[in-house]
Amino acid sequence: MTQSDFKAINGSFNTDYKKTNVNVEYDFKLVQLESLSPRPVGDGITFDRWAVIPKDQILEHRMVCRMCEKYPELEKYKQARTDDEMFLHTVANIDRAFQPIDGQPAKGWNYRLPQPAVSKLETPIMGDDDKMKYYVLRDGLHRYWTQDGKGDLPCSVITADHEDFLIKFSSTANNEGDEVQRNYTTRRDCIKAVQFWIKQGRLKLEKGKEKDCVEKYLRDYYYEVEKHDRVGLAEDILEESGIPTDIRHWSKGEIKKHVKNQMKMEVAINHDDKVYRDVHVLGNNDTDIRAWYNLLQWQLNDEENMEYDVELFGAITTRDGTDVQPTLGNIGKLRRDNQLEFQQFINFCCDVAESKDKLKLPKINWVYQINNASKKEDPMKFH
């Protein structure tokens, strides 16, 4: 291609680079972006164009964090990160692509992956490096800081009808699922982002179904964040937002603290009164059995322990893994069922003990069938 060809490309892409100095490398990057890179997608987001922008023209997250102390109105330009969090090992991993290895040429920038995204500032801002900023970084903090944050940044320019959607994009764009070297949206980042959406009135919470509304929102926009405990994440978001739910989740630590503060009792072994107190989060058959086993084991370890009264303080779990999700309508029945299941467990233990005494326990042959250690074990043999 000739220089005139690249000038034509510059015009068609409406680039921001100084057109008085044709830059072949810059034009090459634009061609790569246009032909290889997937366009960004997000709620309320519109892809405007591809661009290669000098990094010193971009207002990025860490600079925003520093400047917010003096200019709090810049808070909206933060990415969905906890404080100015950045992981240097992630930046180092990306930087390796720019280094020759064993005589092989450097791989360079990967244009086939989703690219960093920026939006244009309505009014340019002077950065704390005394350089004018024309864009805000919305996604791609770690890739921005490759090569010590110098040079230019291949990126997409995005727009939205409202700043809220650009703020949302900065967290949803970091969902897991692609091969980009980035640090994914954390639980803390997600809570902060969804709280903002609730505060702005954009996430409508139906009365009595607040948790369901938040769960659906998490499935739609933060599908990889705590996907095995989405109920718990929704509850934490609502609790931190000051929005009560019909059924509250209790952790063991919270139950202990409640018993101590409200009932003035320590959850521990009281040898003076001969009382054994413990806490348990109920409602999952596997963990319930484990807790009952631990309790019986403690009593059977010493004959004197059989003289102790046992007090269990518990709450029905609401988290993923519960056998039945508690509601206002079934919470009483679930509590009664849990006590009944404990008695059934005791009866079962008695039946096992009786069968053992009569030498009637079935013989079990433990065959550890499939090759778990797949690289070392023969798949055609039992192990």
Secondary structure: elements and pairs:
Elements: H1 3-13, H2 24-36, E1 45-54, E2 58-59, H3 61-67, H4 88-95, E3 117-126, E4 132-139, H5 141-144, E5 152-160, H6 163-172, H7 187-199, H8 210-221, H9 230-240, H10 252-263, E6 269-270, E7 275-282, H11 285-301, E8 309-316, H12 331-357
Parallel strand pairs: 2-4, 3-5, 7-8
Antiparallel strand pairs: 1-5, 3-4, 6-7
Helix pairs in contact: 1-2, 6-7, 7-9, 8-9
Overall description:
- The protein is an alpha/beta fold and 383 residues long.
- The chain folds into 3 domains: 160 residues, no CATH class; 60 residues, no CATH class; 98 residues, no CATH class.
- Helices cover 38% and strands 15% of the residues.
- The protein is built from 12 helices and 8 strands.
- A 5-stranded mixed sheet has the order 1-5-3-4-2. Strands 6-7-8 form a 3-stranded mixed sheet, with helices on both faces.
- The protein is elongated, with a radius of gyration of 30 Å.
- About 3% of the residues have low confidence.
| Strand adjacency order, main sheet | 1-5-3-4-2
Q: Which structural class should the secondary elements be placed in? A: alpha/beta
What's the number of domains?
Answer: 3
Poorly predicted regions:
6-10, 17-22
Q: What's the helix count? A: 12
Q: Indicate the percent of residues in helices.
A: 25-40%
Task: Say how many strands there are.
Answer: 8
Overall mean confidence score, pLDDT: 82
Roughly what fraction of the amino acids lie in strands? 5-15%
Chain oligomer state: single chain
Taking all Cα atoms into account, the compactness measure Rg is: 30 Å
- Overall spatial form: elongated
